[in-house]
Amino acid sequence: MTVRPVTDVSRRPEPTPKNRLRALDGLRLIAALMVAGYHYGGRGGEVTGAWGSSAARQFPTLHAYFAYGCLGVQVFFVISGFVICMSGWGRPLKSFFASRASRLLPAYWTAVLLVSAVFALPMVAYEALSPSDTLVNLTMLQQPLGVDRVLGVCWTLWAEVRFYVLFALCVVLPGASRRRVILFCAGWTLAAAVAQGAHMPLLDIVLMPEYAPFFVGGVGLYLVHRDRRDVYAWGIVAVSFLIGQHYAVRSLWNASDPHAFAHRSSTGIVLVVAFGFVAVAAIALGLLNRADWRWLTVAGALTYPFYLVHEHLGWVVIHALHITLGLPAAATFGLTVASMLALAWLMNRFVERPLTPRLRAALARAH
Question: What is the mean pLDDT of residues 12-23?
Fold first, then answer.
């Protein structure tokens, strides 16, 4: 009798991608709405001009809670770590690249051109970028090139792209396995810590110490999804949360700043970060499998285009509704979110649905 050796692959259950994790789509939309709340009512800056006064005056109580909405980005990064590990597992590099590029680019290009066109209108108070800067923005490389951004939120896409490249080179290219993913998570976590201590800008750009724990935590949670008894995976998640909350508190805690728009407490920041990890963990463990409503898939499809256009075009809508038409702040807020979701539906229906599969197929065929 031949005894089959126990290997890394054979002792781990295979992933079950047949069932879509619709709760993850819902969590995406929650994170996007958190960010929208921050941009509309949780900060100063350009939105003050849209409201005609500080958002703190428009939302005397809620503005302090909206200020935590910026942490929706960290929640997005945890989700991204989970999804990218899931989608990259067992996929060749070309297919992985085609999938990511076709997912990001059509809506992104449309958003850049749409915001630029709206800001160029004479009746809009916001200044459009030069044609040259707008064209550079189409590459997604405007930040490292030092070019002004058309979309304020696109800095997060630059972080996502760097994560995709690291994951592709370290995991997808050699072939995903549990052991390789664990080494990737451990190596990135350690390298990011070294980069933080080395104070070298190049290492910071490549390794992203401030955001690495959230991506790594999401990857660890996908390992938990594959095997909830995986002690190494839980260790990755725990370490990522501990480091991630440190970076979030360090960058966002502002109780000592007398000029801060709203004072975030360190406890509040930690709780929001914990929410992101716990929510994805609940999905990974199957605790939210009952949330299998089809409308969540629609919500997930709208999240990315909504995220791209909501900030800058939201300023235009807020000004039109609140200043021009005189609607109260609460109604303006709700209608602005609704209008951005409607625009996101149009982008998904007429841009993403027709162009994403065609771009994916073209990239997959290319040699």
Answer: 58
- ∠294-299-304 over CA atoms, to 5°? 140
Q: Between the CA of residue 75 and those of 79, 80, 286, what are the distances in Å?
A: 6, 9, 18
CB 359 within 8 A of CB 108: no
Report the C-alpha gap between 63 and 69 in whole angstroms.
10
Residue 125 corresponds to which tokens in the numbers above? Answer: 């108070």
Residue written as token pair 């100063």: 44
- Cα 229 versus chain centre, distance: 28
In a 10 Å sphere around its CB, with 0-12 CB exposed, 13-18 middle and 19+ buried, how is residue 322 labelled?
A: buried
Task: Read off the pLDDT band of 19 (50, 70, 90).
Answer: low
For the chain, the distance separating the N- and C-terminal CA atoms, rounded to the nearest angstrom, is 46
| pLDDT for the residue numbered 173 | 95
The pLDDT value recorded for residue 83 is 97
Helices (H), the chain: 22-41, 46-51, 55-58, 62-66, 72-88, 93-119, 131-137, 142-145, 154-167, 178-198, 201-207, 212-226, 231-252, 266-284, 294-318, 329-347, 353-365
Residue 303 has pLDDT above 80, yes or no: yes
pLDDT digits (tens, 9 = 90+) for 217-231: 999 999 999 999 999
Asked if 23 and 285 count as a contact pair (C-beta separation under 8 A), the reply is no
pLDDT of 56: 93
Q: What is the Cα–Cα distance from 180 to 132, expressed in whole angstroms?
A: 42
The C-alpha atoms of residue 85 and residue 91 are separated, in whole angstroms, by 10
Taking a C-beta distance cutoff of 8 angstroms, is the pair 292, 22 a contact?
Answer: yes
Concatenated DSSP letters of 4-54: PPP-TTTTSPPP-TTS--HHHHHHHHHHHHHHHHHHHHS--THHHHHHTS-
pTM: 0.92
